[in-house]
C-alpha cells in the first residue's frame, strides 16, 4: 500500500514537469530549429552559389537504375527537382512539404502499380501525426534533402533513409510518372521515393503488401485477415524472407484463428475503435496497368488496395467507409454517394453525417457500403495495431503562412497542448502496439 501511494505521489508531482519538457521538445525546440536552419541555408547561399547547396543523392541517382524495370508505360522520363512543382499563384516561390495539414485526399496514384503503398499512406493519414512522424523534416527545404524514419524489420531497428527531391516525370507532360501531387504539396512524392530507395528501385514498388508498408512506417505489429472458400476469415502474420535479389521479400503465414462473418465485423469494429490502422484488398486481378482505366466505369476495381476509414453500425445496418487511393472510381451500389438508401433511412444518414455519410455525390474516392456487400467484393483486410501517445503531437510549421508560419504553429500547438488538454491526454492515454497481443484483442469474440 505504501509503495502504491509513493508511486501515485511521484506521478502527481512529476507529471507537470514532464508536460513542460514534452511541450518544449515537441513545439519550442523544433520551431527554433526551423529558423536556425533557414538562416544557415540563407548564409550558405550568400557565400556559395545556391546550386552548390542542393543535395544530390549519389546512392539513388536520377537514372534508369533507380527506376528499374517497371511495367507501366510512361514514355520517356525526365527528372525534375521538387522546387519545380510550385504553383505559379504561390507567392512563396516554392512548393510545400505539408500544406494545410495531411489528408487522405492528398494521395492519388499514377502509373506505377503501387496502390498498396499509397493505400498504406492513406490509411496512416487518417491518424493525425502518424505520417509526419515518418518525416524528420518539418517543412520544405531549399537544399532538396529529406530524411525519413523507417523500421527495418530485418535489422530490427529504425533506420534513416536520406533522399534528394529529384522526381521522375513524363517528358511529354512534365508531370510525375508515378504518384500524383496534390497541388504543390510534395510529401506523397517524397515518401514514395523514400520507399523506392528502401526497396532498391521504383520498380520494386510494383506489387506488395499494405501490412509491410505500415510496419515500415510505424514499427508496430501488423496482420492480415483473409476470407477462405467456406466464408471463414483467417488471420495471417507477416514473415520476412529476404533473398540476395530482394532484401525486402516477405510473405503472409496463416495462423489457427478463424472467424465467421458476424464475428469478423465485430472484431473490425473493435480494431477501429482502438485506433488501429485498417486497409483492405478487393478480389480479382488489377489489369489497369496494362489495359488502362476506363473512366466511364464505376465500382470496385479488381485486385486493388483500399483504405477502411470507418466501421460503423447504425440502426442495425453494418456499414464501412472505404477510400480508393486513386481519388476516384467509387462503389455505385447500396449506400454509395448516389444511393437512395440514404433517403430511405434518414436516421442512418444523420448518425453517420459526422463521418461524411449521405448523398454527397463527390467523386473523391471515398464511399460507404454495407458489410454484406463488402464481403462479396473484398477478401483481405490489413491491420496495424498502431502505438499512440505523446509523440502523436507534432509542430505544424504552417508553411503557407510564410516566415511567421513556424511561430504561429508553435503558438497554436501550445494552445492545443495546454488549453485543450491534448498534452495531458496523450501522455496519460498511451498504447504500445508492439506489446498488444492480437489474441487478447480477438478473444472476446473468438469462435
Automatic annotation (TrEMBL):
| Key words of the record | Hydrolase, Membrane, Metal-binding, Phosphoprotein, Protease, Repeat, Thiol protease, Transmembrane, Transmembrane helix, Zinc, Zinc-finger
Active site, per annotation: 115, 304, 324
- Report which superkingdom the organism of origin falls in: Eukaryota
Q: Does the keyword Phosphoprotein apply?
A: yes
In this protein, which residues make up the domain named Calpain catalytic?
54-387
The record's listing under CDD domains reads: CysPc
SUPFAM superfamilies in alphabetical order: Cysteine proteinases
Q: Listed GO molecular functions? A: calcium-dependent cysteine-type endopeptidase activity; zinc ion binding
State the InterPro entries in the record: Calpain_cysteine_protease, Papain-like_cys_pep_sf, Pept_cys_AS, Peptidase_C2_calpain_cat
Q: What is this protein called?
A: Calpain catalytic domain-containing protein
The organism's lineage? Eukaryota, Sar, Stramenopiles, Ochrophyta, Dictyochophyceae
